[in-house]
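Q: I have two molecules that I believe assemble together. Could you output structure tokens for the complex as a whole instead of separate predictions?
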Amino acid sequence: MKYLFLYLRSLMFVALLGGASTTFADDGSGLKTSVALDLVGSFNRTKLNTANDRFDVREAEFLLYGPIDHLFDGMLNVAAHNEGGVSLFEVHEAYIGSSKLIPRSRFRLGQFFLGIGRLNRFHRHDWPFISAPKEHLEFFGAEAATDTGGEYSYLMPLPFFLELTAGVTNGWTYGHVHNVGQRPRVPTHYGRATTYVDLPANGGAQTSLNFLSRTSAQGDAMTLVGADLTAKWREAGVLNFLLQTEAWQRTIKPLIGSSERSFGMYVFPQFAVADQTQFGLLMDYFTVLTLKNIVGAPIANVENRLVPTLTYKTSEFVTLRLAYDWSVAKQANIADRNNQVFQMQATVNLGAHPSHDF
Amino acid sequence: MTSNTKITGFIPYFIALLITSLSATAFAKVKVVTTIPDLAWVAAEVGGDYVESKALLRGNENPHFVDAVPEFTRLTADADVVCMAGLDLEVGYMPAVLTRSGNAKIQPGGPGYCEAGKFVQVLEKPTAAVDRSMGDVHPAGNPHFFLSPKALADGAKEIAAALTRVDPAHTSDYKKGLTNFAAKMDALDKEVVKLLNPLKSAQDKAGGKPLLIEYHREFSYFLNEYGLTSFGSIEEKPGVPPSAGRLGEIAAASKAAGIRVALAADYYPKKTLERFSELSGIKVVVVPTMIQPSGSYKTYAELQKHIANSLVSAATDRSGKI
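A: Yes, here they are, computed for all two components at once.
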């Protein structure tokens, strides 16, 4: 009964959004609407049962954005996820921002995906592969760390691209959670420095250094440091080669007891096999650096993952993917855990033309 | 030395610094950033010594599919004017670039925001509602006006207007630059007409039947200006690569219609064009559609003449006839 009520409420919400967008889209306000659907099928090939063995709507996302007045822009992004068999809509992002008030600057206030790293800044349906790498899952959540606060970016007046971003958010919760959380001892705060270089043959590479920290209500101080790199070679509208990689280390210092440190990184090279078809290989590595046994001796542990991924784009609005997700978790004195999952994905974009981000 | 003497000792330096700053301000050039290189050239022609222009694209990209590269953001952050072709050609990347630049002047509605397509007589503007099932149809009409010297001269009006908005002190100079530019385009137009005369005559002899086909309808303004007609496009729907079936059909239809040349931009798939040529026996002419400052066709006149000469050469048979 509770789910039925929530489901009906979600439907009503969507109907209102749809109505609003139809009513206001052409009234000169500049409001734009966009809908993204992310359909994913995961099928177990081993007995670990990590996949749900069906084709499902992973996400249905409504995006409304446009200028609010001569200075501010606004954005509302609501997405439905399948939770407990019911697709419930929730606010992913809702913020106002401006790039017109302070020279070389832009800022946003509200709820948003924290502007750090590579994957965390993009909606999951825009990723070049289907599922989150292990370290992203552990450090940011299945899609992205989202919170409410403020974020400011400044483009340095230099002869090369260098943008500095800093943000502070409530920090009552961290990651993607569905509870109010508790007032933290130190709110979530983060920073990012990004640079970009042109590469020969129509290529370009963006590199960033990232930092995030928060101390929870219980006194657990979490610090994340990481770097990300994205390099692309595009020719005549075709992405000939993409290299995307991120490396992160997380340290959690509890109020009492010893610290926990984890490290993870992924590398994703992808090349075009035809104008509309790309083949990529996600290589993922994760380890808990401070894992110890009861007498305090270090325990070697590692989780590796290889995901060959075939992508076909009928246009910039439709992406079809097939992937074979193979992972193995190794830990001293414990049998290896092999896991193999076959995955398929279809993402579609309806409505306003999305910008082609680097 | 008293404190007064100390202060008066700095006066000459202060005056020199003031004069330097004032002269730097007085002679500071208007920074114009454009999307395509052709518009950067137009800005330089219209603005002369008062303008410093730079293009974001190199001229070899498919202007429909460009990423919002961070370097674009850096360049637009310092710009006084940002000029685009408009008509939705850059809709895929420029909104993000402008927003991230943090430059209020060049945002839509700002004095430095410029869409050159504003004053162009737009071709192929859809008369009915469009949607994506029709392919990548531009709702505002065909945005490839910059391949026609006369349409480019129309586009230059908005560039001159933007320069005047941000630098009203040189209004008369920009007006003069615009007049000279229009005259230059007229002269170029006459030269290209002469170059294309053999093809135009052959088309007239054939009763106005088209002798060429395009891969994508981006030569419409060029052909329209020189009185040439197009059989259509190899693409069935704009922006959608032709299927094997479509390629077979259009190759057969083109051959039957006596088409002599297929015209394509240099960023379209070579294999598809080669396959079309194999199936139809029609020569394919691949040309740049924008100036390429670091390529073979560095000036607008060179580019226009290259397209005209390539067309005539490809349409001419071994006996020298079209």
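A: One point stands out. The first strand of chain A starts at residue 32 and ends at 44.
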